[in-house]
From TrEMBL, chain A:
Transmembrane segments: 6-21, 28-48, 73-97
Cell compartments where the protein resides: Cell membrane
Family: Belongs to the CPA3 antiporters (TC 2.A.63) subunit C family.
Name by which UniProt lists this protein: Cation:proton antiporter
Membrane topology: Multi-pass membrane protein
Annotated source species: Caldithrix abyssi
Keywords assigned: Cell membrane, Membrane, Transmembrane, Transmembrane helix
Chief site of localization: membrane
Assigned GO CC terms: plasma membrane
UniProtKB/TrEMBL annotation, chain B:
Domain NADH:quinone oxidoreductase/Mrp antiporter transmembrane: 130-417
Protein name: NADH:quinone oxidoreductase/Mrp antiporter transmembrane domain-containing protein
InterPro entries per record: CPA3_Na-H_Antiporter_D, ND/Mrp_TM
Keyword field: Cell membrane, Membrane, Transmembrane, Transmembrane helix
Superkingdom of this protein's organism: Bacteria
Cellular location(s): Cell membrane; Membrane
Lineage of the organism: Bacteria, Pseudomonadati, Calditrichota, Calditrichia, Calditrichales
Membrane-spanning ranges: 6-25, 37-57, 77-100, 112-129, 165-186, 206-226, 238-259, 265-286, 298-318, 330-350, 371-390, 402-423, 443-464
Pfam families membership: Proton_antipo_M
Membrane-topology annotation of the record: Multi-pass membrane protein
Automatic annotation (TrEMBL), chain C:
GO cellular component: plasma membrane
Signal peptide start and end residues: none
Domain of life: Bacteria
Keywords, alphabetical: Cell membrane, Membrane, Oxidoreductase, Transmembrane, Transmembrane helix
Domain NADH:quinone oxidoreductase/Mrp antiporter transmembrane: 119-414
Stretches that traverse the bilayer: 6-24, 31-51, 63-87, 99-120, 126-145, 152-173, 193-213, 233-254, 274-293, 300-325, 331-350, 371-394, 406-432, 453-471, 504-525, 600-618
Name of the molecule in the record: NADH:quinone oxidoreductase/Mrp antiporter transmembrane domain-containing protein
Naturally occurring in which organism (per UniProt): Caldithrix abyssi
Major place of residence: membrane
One Pfam family, short name: Proton_antipo_M
Amino acid sequence: MIYYIGAFSLILIGIYAVLVKRNLIKIVIGLSLVDAGVHLLLIAIGYIKDKTAPIFSNPSLSAGDMVDPVPQALVLTAIVIGVAVTALALTIVIRLYDHHKTLNINKIRELKW
Amino acid sequence: MNTLPYFDPALMIALPLLAAFLIPLLKRASERIPKFVPLLILGFNLYESIALLPHSLQKPIVVIIAAWQPPLGINLTIGPLGNILALIISLVGFVVAVYNIKFVLEEPGEKYYMLFLLMITGATGMVLTGDLFNLFVFLEITSISAYALTAFIRDRNGAEAAFKYLLIGSISSTMILLGIALIYASTGTLNMADIAQKIGQVDSRITLAALILMIVGFGVESEIFPLNGWAPDAYSQAPTPVGAVFGGIVVKAGVYGLARVIYTIFSFQGVFHFILIMGIITLLMAEMSALRQKQIKRMLAFSSIGQMGLVLIALGLATQNAVAGGLFQMFNHALIKPLLFLSAGYLVYYSGSKDIGDLDGMGKIKPVTSFFFAFGAFALMGLPPLNGFWSKLIIISETVKSGYIVLAALALTGSIIEAVYYLRVVGRLYFKSPEEHVKTKYVHASAVVAMSILAGLALFAGLFPDVILHYLQPAARELMDKTQYIQAVIAIK
Amino acid sequence: MKPVALVLLILFGSSILSYTLGKVHSLIENTIALIALLWAGTVFAMQYGVSDTFSFSMAGFDIVWRISILSWFFGMMAFIIGLGVVIYSMAFMKDKERIGYYCFALCITIAGTIGIVVSADLISFFFFWEIMTWSSFLMVIYYRYEAQKAGIKYFVMSLIGAYSMLLAIFLIYSHTHSTRFDVLTVMWENFSSGLQIALLSLFFVGFGVKAAIMPLHTWAPDAYRISPSPFTAFFSGILSKMGIFGLILLFYVFSAGSLAAHFVTVNGVALPGYLLAWFGALTALIATIIAIVQDDAKRLLAYSSVAQLGYIALGIGLSSSLGLAGAMFHAVNHTIFKVMLFMAVGAVIYRTGTYKFSELGGLITRMPYTFFVVLLGIITLAGIPPLSGFVGKWMLYEALLQQKMVFLAIVTFAASTAAFLYCYRLIFTIFLGQRPERFDHIKEVPWSMRAPMLLLSLLTIYLGMYPYHLIDLIGKVESTLFGIVPVDMSQSVLFSRMGSVNTLTVMNIVGVVFVLVFVLFNTLYKRSRKVVLKDIHTSGEVPGPHINLHYAVDFYQPFSRGVSAILKRSADRLYAAIGENLENLFDLMRYIYTGNGQTYAMYVVIFLALLFVFSQWLV
């Protein structure tokens, strides 16, 4: 249960950061937080109490002793995607800073209408 | 009917992906090669999707990857719908690749071609895959390359547009992921057919939450109002061919995701009304905004949103004819919007300004490009004998038939607004006297070829709508009747 | 191949051929159009009474084409006028730019028109209607720089009309599951009254825009004014008739006379028809008044056209055999004389380059043929015997009196009388009076322009002599298609309850008198001295520049002062104001698309939250 609470609070904090913070970097951090929250949630879904990692590290382990492997695979993929997005976001932020000399999202509003 | 030999459908995704990463290497061999790689690859995709079509019309082709049987392994499920969309995507991609050959780019070209191919890979993957998580991954591939392409011209506005797109895009993809998590938690599977089968046994509150998350997530990609704030900026700031691809491909993939979710995976009835209402709101809001735009590409972007609104109306009606009409509308839009974008790109390039006001008299200076723009505008307005006429006709017909007369009237009002702003632009092209300072450069042959293909197809589809509808009806049936889809996948077991 | 399909194929093919081959040599364009029209016209004409049907399915809709006798009636009008216009254009458009474009649009327009008349189902009707709309739009914007506003106004209003028609079509489709006319005819009486009202009003907007019925006429004066003169003739003569054709379809084919059973009747006319009659009569009156004060020949004719279409609508609305016959007769008349007049005015423009009355005058000696055509044209227009205009109006008045519609009759009489004023203005200010010096050496127009005008003049004389031939045809249309008993008549005598007119006698008398006077004039006055019209004297005073000597300026000044109160309220300005306000309203969207990425993200989250709150709706 604590994992679910943790995951959702991470998501909410992230969304809060995205919506309220004016600093571009903080917004990107917020996005990462949301991502992390979702990942945690996915892992929590696959977690079964007292089971071990889904790796046949020990010949005595049977499939019944492991947690669900699928969410872990998903999360690995999702983490990679998240990293890519964050990296791209940061490059764009750098580009924005070069052009606008500010990180305040309210001041970067040339494209409207 | 003779059928063409076809290859493993997985190549439609694998080849572009491979080629995309090979491009930087090929660049070392010769500067010119990267230009032609997308052409070649997309030509293959086009051939492949045509060759597959007769087979997928019979029954969905299920391709198993890495010998894992569904529902455990990842598989491609190529039904009529996916196949047709893949065809559209390859077609638009191919035409844009032709256009790309000579399009002027200040930047190192190979990255551009790489991202372009990646975007197409993602979109093709989205429509072909049978796995929900895979759908998400391909969506991310499409989006990430789209973000990068939006910022491709390294100016201040490009970066701004890209950031907005990225911000909203990643929120939406997070929601999709969350929705997937919920679905997996309750059904224990990620295969779409399998989910569709099991979803009935799950607590409807959880599925409802998952549905909402996914509607919002895919709604961002399919430009539902008010989730479409990114679209005008991204369309207008990206390089012209990319804008064309956004309108022709990315949105289509988003709508495909939405349709899959509401038709195949879930079985809520009220959602159709919701989509219907969102469709008309999207349509009207977009047309109203488009009327007041001063930049031609922003106007085209809003118009694109408006067209998607019409598609959403069709999807929301949820009758087979309406869905077929909606698919027809998507097909038409995929032909016409790139045509408009490509020609507008040249017009902007010649006049050196993105403002509509600076396009005065281009019809006299640039007759070919202006003609294609006017042609596209007429086709989009739905004037016979061009293709837009039939799709609009079918959608409006089905709307009235389902009893939503007021809705049909509103949609037609939107069409009238659309006619006004398109005519204003066409009017500026032809009615005003040209200004002096316009560059006199000829349109590149590649661009003319690209635009002619699109215009020719638009005319063909307008004259022989039945040829197109013949393929769209099974696709609509696939959406309407999910048992066939489920059985095709489950039967493999 | 079925003749119907062949006709359409020839026409559409010719438009493309004339455009592409026209690039090779400029002479080809007109020739191809001419040959195609002749060929298609012959094929079409031979289908008289055959009622041959061609049907197939397209995009899930039944498409039926049929040359019924009504189609034949309107189709032949289009072919004849189309031929005339093409011949006329040969000289008129010579050495003008973009002839290929012109021929392309003209051929497509004619093809669209024929398509409309042969359609026997609503979908192909709409299809061709839209084709006609955009191709005529291409024509309106031919003079591109000046034409923008008029063109867009025309197109948008046409589109509004077309879309309201589309709604009606699909309303019908959703009730009958068919778009065929014959099915509709059978099913109409089962429709509820509410549905009938909706259909009638939607169709009224659709057809009324094309037929320029007030208050849907505002596009007409501008579009007529700006389109190339030969096309203006076709516009007024044929395209506006498509609206009339639609109204006839609506009242006599779709609803098939079952309106009376559903609605209140006024003097024996079902309410929708009665209202249409009033719309028509008021259109006739108001448009006539506006026409009188115009200083622009083409605008004058445009308003006159609107007024005449009002008469025709009136006749259709009366829903009696005589009323419909009168309407159709007048439709033919209107086509003939309006084409004559527009061609004649076009000829004047061709030579002088202006259509302002205040800049013209005294052209009678320079362009005698054109003068003659205009003279015959306005005689027909005003409905004076012995020309055919008289017969049509006579039938309309009689139909009115027959049904004891006194007020309508008064309005119509008033409009008809007022029409003399603008007729007079038209002929007087252009051809009589003093001639500006710069026009002293202009010549009559070439024969290819003269010929169509003169042939049409002959036609109106012929129809004035033998109205029976046309009435007989109309009677056939009425009896075969609508089951209405045709009007009673014989070779040249028009019977009615109020007496009879022998048109042949009238024509003979007038002809004899005309020839007599003409001969007398030429023999007796041979020796008279010719004075130059400028020899007017101003009582010894030298006129200063401030004194306006040209009488055509403020021609009907007292009159226009009198009606200025009416003219102040213009539907056109009202629409423009509505459009502008709406556009400003749309600016509110600016507050939604603020340009702040964070706001957009906020929308996404709020949208999500709202969906969760109202999630029960999705189930």
